[in-house]
Amino acid sequence: SANSLLALYMALELQSLPLYVLAAYNRDNLRSTEAGLKYFVLGALASGMLLYGCSMIYGFTGTLNFNELAARIATDGTGGLSIGILVGLVFLVAGIVFKLGAVPFHMWTPDVYEGAPTPVTAFFASAPKFAAMGLALRVMMQAFGDAAAEWQQIIVFISVASMGLGAFAAIGQSNFKRLMAYSGISHVGYALVGLASGTEKGVYGVIV
Questions:
Q1: By C-alpha distance, which of 206, 62, 61 is closest to 147?
Q2: Can you count the helices (H) and strands (E) in the chain?
């Protein structure tokens, strides 16, 4: 329900904090501790990228409100983005892609899924990704919908790469949790196809 990049960032980070704890919940297991630490360190890096993207967008537009961002972009005759806004958007997308566990920021997913307790792994495979996908839809379609031509190719690449890598990497897995991780990466790729279309029907497809 957030209508601002800052509020959205804060909500996403508040969601992430308990996830770091859940990943390392089994303190007697070395793999669980490693999973929690790896998730925290890489998650902090992704959070920094997300925040930097928000700051770049604010610096070049003077607002973080979705409606005002959309109006600011719409006033551009061609719907194009300045280089500063585009760089900020790239960092923003990178942070969101990490939260989704999609290529190329998928490296943490198999290790964290394997090390986390089994119920936590099942939770990681669903709830956080729903939230991150909702975030992606709100940001890209509401705030940057008029500049779809600028970001569609990025989403298409991420989608195709996630589908391919997730499917082929899953073939050689003997650990069920790692198999779930790569399956999740592939599924995120399929979901991103709807976002890449840049249409309302595509958004409905992602939700379904």
A1: 61
A2: 10, 0
The residues, ordered by sequence, that sit 6+ positions from 101 with a Cβ below 8 Å of its Cβ are 108, 109, 129, 181, 184, 185, 188
- Counting Cβ atoms within 10 Å, is residue 110 exposed (0-12), middle (13-18) or buried (19+)? buried
Phi, psi of 65 (to 5 degrees): -75, 135
What is the reported pTM? Answer: 0.88
List, for residues 96-112, the tens digit of each pLDDT value. 999 999 998 998 899 99
DSSP bridge partners of 4: 65
- CA dist., res. 187 & res. 208, Å (int): 13
Calculate the dihedral angle through the C-alpha atoms of 171, 177, 180, 184, rounding to the nearest 10 degrees. Answer: -120
What is the distance between the alpha carbons of residues 97 and 5, in angstroms, rounded to a whole number?
16
For residue 65, the cross-strand partners are: 4
